[in-house]
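Fig. S4 source data, part A: sequence.
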Amino acid sequence: MATVRTMAFFSARIALQTEMKNPTIVVLTDRQDLDNQLMGTFSASREMLRQTPVQAKTRMNLRDLLTRDSGGIIFTTIQKLE
């Protein structure tokens, strides 16, 4: 669990850097249960992240999330990339 919190902390550091101008962070996993666990931890860290992470539901949803201009933190599984 400490590793997941560390990931959330470093994601917040990246997201808040002004040089990057609102980056998109993609968290890619190989299992749905891990994707859900990470999403839960990051969602609990919304205040630190200053944004609400989103979880791609389908391949098309992932494509839409990746083409938006607003950046953000996106969770998905490798299976949605096939």
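Fig. S4 source data, part B ends here. Residues 30 and 78 are 5 Å apart (CA to CA).
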